[in-house]
Each structure stands twice: as C-alpha cells, then as structure tokens.
C-alpha cells in the first residue's frame, strides 16, 4: 500500500516537472494566460469579498440570527422607531423575546484637553448590552440602576479609545466632557463591536451613554415623536412570524391607550431581522455586481481555453508521435489538465494580490450608504473561494483543448503536421464558438454598462431645484448644558447670521435643520384647514425649519407670494412656505396662498399656520427620486412645531446646518466660517464643512459607484473579447499561409485577401452580437430596478453597444488582415 502511494506521488512529481518544463519553454504564452486569469479571478474575488463581508458574514454578535428590530408600522407604511412611552410597554408586555432594549442615535461634542470634536454616539438602555451579548474588553457597562438614576456614564468605542486616548490602560474612572458636562468612563468595547448598525459606514457610534429618558421625553407632548428604536432577542423556539404577532398584539394594546389627540393614528407591530434590515437596500446592487464580474471571469476563461486550444493544436504532431509510441490518451489529458491547473493557480495567487489592492482602494471609494464596510477583507473564506475558482478554471479550460487535440486523425497528423493546417482547421469551429461566446457575453455586459451610464447621465441632467454653486455648509450641535433654553439657541443663531453677513464676499447666510438633496428627511404629518375629521387621513410632508436668508442662500426660486422676513418671529401669526408639489397636491385647482395648515392630526392643538409663499420643488435626496411634498417654517416661530405647551423640542433646535453663499469658491471660505463661529463660541466644533456640491455628490455616490464599477467590468470584458478575436484570427491566418499564397499566385489581390480576413472576424462578431442582444433582453429584468428614466431595453443603448462591439471586432481583425495581405507567395510556397 505504501509502495503504491509512493509510486503515485513520484508519478505526480514527474508530471509536475514535465508541466513546468513545457510551460517554461513557452514563457510568453504562460504569462498571457496567467495575467488573463489574474484579471478575471482577481476581480471576481474582490467583488466576492464585498458579497461575503456584507451579505454572507454573520453579524458580530452571539446567535445574531435571533436579533431583531422591534417597532411600529405607522399609518400602513413600514417604520421601525417607537415613541418613548411605548418602550416600557413593549418591554413588559411582549412574550416572544428573551430580552430587549431601546436606543436612540445622538451626537456629542467632546471637549477638554484635546481639540473639541463632534462624534456620533448612541443613548442605550442598559438592557441593550445583554441583549446583544456584548462584553467590554476593559471595565464594564452601565447597569439598569445607574440608567434609572440618570448617572452620567460613558462607554467608549475601541476607535475612540485608540485615536483620542492612545489606548490609555488607566482610562477607567476618568472624565470625558460631553456637551460640556463631565461623564465618567466605565468601559471600552472591543474593536469589532458596532451598534447601532448603520446603513452608512461613516456614522458609527464612537461612545455610548445611558438612555435615561427625561420627563419631557415621556410627557404627553412627546407622544407624537417616533424617534426611538428597539432591539430584541427572540426566545429559542419562537419564529419571526410568531414574534411579529406578539408585537402586533402589544401594538394594539398601546393604540388603545393613545390619548384623543392621537386617536386617528393606526399602528401595528413591526419585527425585522437585524441583518436583513441592514443589507436589504444593497442586496440587488451586490447581486448585479457579482453577475457582472462573473461575466468577466467567463470571458477570461473562454480566452484561456482558446489559447490552450491553440497550444494543443500546435503540439498535435508531438501528441501523435507519443500516441504512436504507445502513450495512453489519459496520460496526455492528465498532463494537459496539470498544466492548466498550474497556470490557473499562478493566476489565482496573482489575482489574490490584485484583489487585495482593489479592496484597499475600494474601501475609500465605497459610498457612505454601504453597510458593514469594516467586515470586508480577504479572510480565509474569500481566499478559499479564490483558490477553488482557480482550480475549477484550470480544469475546465484544459479539458476541451485536450480532447479536441486527441480527436484528430493520427495518420494525418504524422503525415502532414500542423503547417498545412488540414487537421488543425478541423477545430476552427471550436475556436470560433469560444470567440462568439466571448462576444455575446461581453455585449451583454456592455449593454448593462451603457444602461447604467445613460441612467447616470439622465440623473445628472435633472434640475435639483436650487443652485449649489458657491455655497458652503457646515453642521453643528449645541450642548444643551450651555444653551439651556430656546432664547439662548435663538441668540446663537442671530449672532451667526449677523457675523457672517458682515464678512466681505458673503452674499447670503442661513441656518436650517435639513439640507436639500442630502437625504435628510424629516417627515411631519399635517392637517389642512377645512378637512373634517371623518375625511382626514395620515399623510406626511418633509418639514424644514429655516432662519436667515435661506431661500436666497440656496438659490430656491420663489414662484408665488413671498419669502420669510424678520417680522416672522415669535408672537406674530405663524406662517409657512410650501413647494409647488405640495401646493398642487393639497389644493388642486385652488390658490394655495392664504390657506392654513398645522402639524399633526386634527385633534392636536397646534396653531394654524398661513401659507405665504410657494417655492420651486427641491430634491430631498438624490436627483433620481421623485419630487415630494415639502414645507418650510421659520425657526423663530417654534409654536408651529411644538404646540403651545410643548417644551420637548429644544434638542432638535440645538442641531442644524449653517449655509452661506459667497462670491468666491466655497473652498476659500472654510477658514472664514470656522473663525467666525470661534468668535461666537470658541469650543463649538463644526462638522462636515464642505461645499454644497459635495453634499449632492455624496448622495449620488451609490449610483456613481455602480456605474463606474459596471463600466470598468464592461471595459475589461471588451478588452478580453478583442484579444480573443485577434488571437483566433491571427492563428487562422498563420494556419492558412499556404492557402493565401496559392490564392495570391493565382491572381488574388492583396485587398481581397485582407477583405477575406476582415469578413471572417466580422462574421463571428455579427453572430456573437445577435446572441448577445438576445441574452441582454433575457436578463434586462435584473437591472431594471437600478435604472433611472431609462428602459433596460433602451434601443439607443443596444444600438450603441452593438456598433461598438462590431467596430472593435473589425479593429481586432485589422492587424491579422494586414499580415495576411503582406504574405510573400514565393516564400510561402517554397516552404510547402
């Protein structure tokens, strides 16, 4: 037994040495195959690392599949947040969960010894950490008793501990100043801990403090604020549908206890698997990207198979001699497969290096909306995937050429050899099939890229409704300890606008709670005067509060009525401005100016606000989104939003964006804005100081990323296809050298010879394009949901892609055609 194993290992070693020797003799061929495979395998591995890190890898929590988000369906539409008062009811009345806890996203100004900065954070119920089964690497987390006592405690993220405190091992028990209030640091979480899990990778929480709901948050006036989230762990043996039924039962109980002011609102329970909620939006994109890169890999494999076929045909005489001397076909096939595997493994290893470089670069280019970016890496699973793909590619690409070479007539091969091409030409159909397949697959990807490019072009041509040029914006959050009242916040806003207006070159300045085209949507339910309660239905419009010369700063045109003025302040009749879409939707065939609306349902006691102006529609998010109802309210009239007795909205008023329009490019006004704010509050940290064009660019980044990546794949596929066409045509010309010489000796012109070769390439391209168009039509549904204002079967895209492929095929055939036309007839005939 051991002797047989030894002989087998020796035979394999011999075969490997022979394969290396054969590959070394044809270094150029080997490098071409390795580089082709490296491109295909490297690109596929890079995209698979995205799929594996974002979609396939479990969340970094124990039994993560049992973690869900618990909340409400509000008004029939999906929603996950809950109100503050619902938290206690869901916690005590549900039976499907072993533990659950509430949380709210937040942002804190960190000041003290180092430079002040604003960092994303979260307020967590003490039960969230046990629900997630998360333990700190240093210290501890806060307890329920500490949360109930409103103790100022903080748990740091690993990143904050590393970057701001340089991994100080004595950090526990020291103070961190958050919003100018000291908090005691009690723990540090592991590097892998991330919560809340955001759909964007730049807003990860850097620290956590107790939720500690305030009396204002639990008051009746805050009942209409759905701004808190809940995470829960389902009990063993309980299914997701059962948990949803349990949540729905409690939601009905909560709804029965709503006060009269909320009686018109209908909620149902909402349970979503945490991981599915996180990746739902990016799943179609990643599937499309993986499909596209698989096409590139298929074309690379077809190219390699064609090269190996050509190599096998050139070695037909060698194979014939060996077979005549008694060699078994199985041995030759095994050697061919071994050579293919060696080439593919070399291509796979080089592809892994290529993929690692691509991943490092892509991490900086991924759109902010891409979740779980920190999970993307070349881990063991990705490496195994790359090696399996390499092995499979080597075996598959080697089989067809080996069998094709061995099926040739042995007598003809020994008698005529390769030079006459009589035997080799019998396999021209196989080479043509490979090339036609490449063209068809490449055209399919080319049409996808064309549709994405046209879609992106259409989106960029959409008017966002305002002028972002020469506008600089910055976000801020005022610490409530230093700005404890609406009057102090109002004084800050007034000082900012006055200081900026006095600066040279500033044309207009404003403050707002939301920027246009940023995706920062704050929906508010509203009631139109004159609509009876029986006919009222829940509807939302994006509500933006503004201060200063907002509409001129943003360049939003006034269509009717007037802008806000300094006279629209507290104590004066409330006023609002609506956009054109809301005016048409709420008052069809009527004049909107002079009409009155208020926040909330008809039973809420909010004051009526009069519409004094109509402005053009502005995009709330990306330009490919439809225009939505939008209205604006002046910040100096807080009663519009808060009602007569509501004091719970101060935290919202303390957060906003500063915007200024200048005569110079916004990049030149950054320092001026920072210094101006420092004159007013030296400790206040501005965040996201950037031109308004960058805000738009960030929102459009996902579509730009999709388009760029798909276009890169299409370019690679086109390049590989051209290479395949060239290789097949050039090889065919070399096989037909004697035939071409005879044609020329009989009077054929060189132009007719060149035309013959060009027609051969054009014929393959035409067949491939026809098949590619049919394949593109078949898979058009896959990309239709990712396009904007462009059909997945757009005739212009199909015509342009087909013409491009045909043109490239002719170009790839041109050089072999010129070579064929320049054949020396006498020299070729002498060599017969």
List the helices and strands and how they pair.
Elements: H1 2-25, H2 27-56, E1 67-74, H3 84-93, E2 97-111, E3 117-124, H4 128-132, E4 138-139, H5 144-148, E5 153-156, H6 158-163, E6 175-178, E7 181-188, E8 207-210, E9 229-234, H7 240-256, E10 267-273, H8 274-279, H9 283-314, H10 316-324, H11 329-365, H12 380-406, H13 410-416, H14 428-460, E11 471-477, H15 486-501, E12 506-512, E13 523-528, E14 540-548, H16 550-554, E15 558-561, E16 575-579, H17 580-586, E17 596-599, E18 609-615, E19 630-634, H18 639-642, H19 650-653, E20 655-662, H20 670-680, E21 687-691, H21 692-735, H22 737-745, H23 750-778, H24 780-784, H25 795-821, H26 825-830
Parallel strand pairs: 3-8, 5-7, 14-19, 16-18
Antiparallel strand pairs: 1-9, 1-10, 2-3, 2-6, 2-9, 4-7, 5-8, 6-7, 11-20, 11-21, 12-14, 12-20, 13-14, 13-17, 15-18, 16-19, 17-18
Helix pairs in contact: 1-11, 2-9, 2-11, 2-12, 3-7, 9-12, 9-14, 9-21, 10-13, 11-12, 14-21, 14-23, 14-25, 15-20, 21-25, 23-25
């Amino acid at each position: 037994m051991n002797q047989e194993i030894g002989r087998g290992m020796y035979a394999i070693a011999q075969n490997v040495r022979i394969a290396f020797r054969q590959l070394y003799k044809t270094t150029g061929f080997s490098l071409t195959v390795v580089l082709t495979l490296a491109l295909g395998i490297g690109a596929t591995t890079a995209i698979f690392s995205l799929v594996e890190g974002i979609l396939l890898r479990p969340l970094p929590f124990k039994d993560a599949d049992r973690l869900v988000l618990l909340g409400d369906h509000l008004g029939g539409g999906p929603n996950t947040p809950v109100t503050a008062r619902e938290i206690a009811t869901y916690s005590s009345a549900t039976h499907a969960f072993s533990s659950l806890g509430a949380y709210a996203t937040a942002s804190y100004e960190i000041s003290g010894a180092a430079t002040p900065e604003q960092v994303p954070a979260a307020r967590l119920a003490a039960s969230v950490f046990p629900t997630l089964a998360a333990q700190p690497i240093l210290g501890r987390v806060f307890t329920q008793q500490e949360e109930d006592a409103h103790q100022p405690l903080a748990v740091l993220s690993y990143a904050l501990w590393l970057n701001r405190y340089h991994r100080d091992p004595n950090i526990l028990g020291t103070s961190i100043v958050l919003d100018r209030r000291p908090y005691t640091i009690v723990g540090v979480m592991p590097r892998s801990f991330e919560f809340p899990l955001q759909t964007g990778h730049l807003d990860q929480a850097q620290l956590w403090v107790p939720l500690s709901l305030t009396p204002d948050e639990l008051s009746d006036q805050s009942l209409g604020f759905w701004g808190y989230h809940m995470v829960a762990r389902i009990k063993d043996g309980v299914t997701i549908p059962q948990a949803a039924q349990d949540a729905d039962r409690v939601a009905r109980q909560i709804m029965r206890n709503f006060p009269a002011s909320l009686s018109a609102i209908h909620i149902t329970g909402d349970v979503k698997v945490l991981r599915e909620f996180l990746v739902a939006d990016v799943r179609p994109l990643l599937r499309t990207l993986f499909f596209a890169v698989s096409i590139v890999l298929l074309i690379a494999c077809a190219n390699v198979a064609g090269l190996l076929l050509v190599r096998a045909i050139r070695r037909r005489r060698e194979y014939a001699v060996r077979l005549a001397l008694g060699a078994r076909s199985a041995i030759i096939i095994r050697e061919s497969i071994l050579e293919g595997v060696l080439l593919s493994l070399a291509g796979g290893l080089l592809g892994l290096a290529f993929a690692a470089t691509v991943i490092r670069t892509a991490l900086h280019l991924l759109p902010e909306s891409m979740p779980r970016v920190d999970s993307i890496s070349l881990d063991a699973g990705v490496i195994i995937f790359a090696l399996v793909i390499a092995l499979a590619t080597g075996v598959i690409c080697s089989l067809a050429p080996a069998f094709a070479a061995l099926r040739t007539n042995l007598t003809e091969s020994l008698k005529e050899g390769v030079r006459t091409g009589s035997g080799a030409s019998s396999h021209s159909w196989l080479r043509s099939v490979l090339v036609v397949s490449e063209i068809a697959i490449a055209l399919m990807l080319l049409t996808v890229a064309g549709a994405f490019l046209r879609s992106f072009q259409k989106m960029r041509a959409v008017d966002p409704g305002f002028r972002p040029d020469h506008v600089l914006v910055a976000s801020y959050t005022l610490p409530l300890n230093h700005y404890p009242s609406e009057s102090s916040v109002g004084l800050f806003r007034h000082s900012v606008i006055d200081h900026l207006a006095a600066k040279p070159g500033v044309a207009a300045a404003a403050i707002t709670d939301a920027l246009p085209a940023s995706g920062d949507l704050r929906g508010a339910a509203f009631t139109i005067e004159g609509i009876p309660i029986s006919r009222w239905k829940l509807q939302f419009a994006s509500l933006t509060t503004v201060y200063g010369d907002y509409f001129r700063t943003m360049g939003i045109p006034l269509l009717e009525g007037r802008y806000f003025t300094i006279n629209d302040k507290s104590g004066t009749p409330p006023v609002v401005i609506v956009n054109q879409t809301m005016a048409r939707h709420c008052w069809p065939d009527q004049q909107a100016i002079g009409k009155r609306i208020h926040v909330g349902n008809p039973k809420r006691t909010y004051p009526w606000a009069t519409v004094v102006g109509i402005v053009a529609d502005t995009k709330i998010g990306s330009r490919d989104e439809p225009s939505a109802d939008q209205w604006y309210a002046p910040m100096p009239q807080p009663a519009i939003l808060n009602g007569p007795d509501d004091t719970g909205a101060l935290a919202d008023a303390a957060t906003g964006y500063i915007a200024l329009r200048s005569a110079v490019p916004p990049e030149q006004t950054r320092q001026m804005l920072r210094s101006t704010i420092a004159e007013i509050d030296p400790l206040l940290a501005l965040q996201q100081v950037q031109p308004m064009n960058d805000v738009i660019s960030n929102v459009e980044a996902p579509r730009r990323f999709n388009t760029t990546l798909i276009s890169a794949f299409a370019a690679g596929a086109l390049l590989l296809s051209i290479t395949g066409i060239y290789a097949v045509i050039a090889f065919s010309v070399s096989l037909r050298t004697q035939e071409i010489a005879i044609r020329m000796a009989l009077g054929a012109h060189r132009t007719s010879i060149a035309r013959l070769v060009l027609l051969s390439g054009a014929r393959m391209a035409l067949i491939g394009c026809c098949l590619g168009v049919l394949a593109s039509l078949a898979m058009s549904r896959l990309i239709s949901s990712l396009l904007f204002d462009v059909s997945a079967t757009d005739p212009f895209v199909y015509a342009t892609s087909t013409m491009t492929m045909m043109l490239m095929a002719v170009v790839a055939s041109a050089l072999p055609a010129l070579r064929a036309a320049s054949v020396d007839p006498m020299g070729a005939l002498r060599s017969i």
